[in-house]
Amino acid sequence: MISVLFVCLGNICRSPMAEALFRDLVIKENLNDIILVDSAATSSWQIGLPPHQGTLDILKKYNISSTGLIGRPLIKEDFWRFDYIIGMDKNNIKNIYNITGKPNHPKIIRLLDLTKERKDIPDPFFTGDFEETYRLVSTGCRALLKKIYREEKLYY
């Protein structure tokens, strides 16, 4: 099983959006028996809570299921449980390094570094722009799926 973990600060906006969107892509590609998807937070503020209403609204708008999305913390053991650990911005990456104790490990990737945009995904909790976040997360998730196809030698 190939495992992917999306990580952001609170696990209520960007990372659950990425989890839901990526899971939707995986299901559409008939890879749900091969790829496991989850998300986590580098903080403990929102643990046990559902995603932000803005995330739920944007997922609903694009007909993507939000079933099972609940905030949880990133833990050190996640480094060993997941093949790909995907942060949304540079601060997330720095926090992932600190929590896992694995600085600069190649399995820890900033999502948009897989795209031409190579930038942070702004946190819509602060910007209020869930549409922009969705667009960027969607672009990044599609690039991640291509990377997994290549690296894991999966075929269409």
TrEMBL record:
Keywords: Hydrolase, Protein phosphatase. It comes from the Bacteria. It catalyses: O-phospho-L-tyrosyl-[protein] + H2O = L-tyrosyl-[protein] + phosphate. This is protein-tyrosine-phosphatase. Residues 2-147 form the Phosphotyrosine protein phosphatase I domain. Pfam families: LMWPc (PF01451). Its EC number is 3.1.3.48. Belongs to the low molecular weight phosphotyrosine protein phosphatase family. InterPro entries: LMW_PTPase, Ptyr_pPase, Ptyr_pPase_sf, Tyr_phospatase_low_mol_wt. It comes from Heyndrickxia vini. It is an enzyme of class 3 (hydrolase). Signal peptide: none annotated.
